[in-house]
Amino acid sequence: MRVVLMGPPGAGKGTQADLLKERSGKPKLSTGDMLRAAVAEGSPVGKQVDEIMKRGDLVPDDLMVAIIEERIKKPDCASGYILDGFPRTVAQAETLDKMLKKHNLALDHIFYLDVDEEVVVERFAGRRVAPKSGRTYHVRFNPPKVTGICDDSGEELVQRSDDKEEVVRHRLTVYREQTAPVLEYYRKQGRLETVDGMQPVEKVYEAISQRLHGAAA
Ligand code: AP5
Question: If one looks up domain 2-213 in CATH, what number appears?
Answer without folding.
Answer: 3.40.50.300
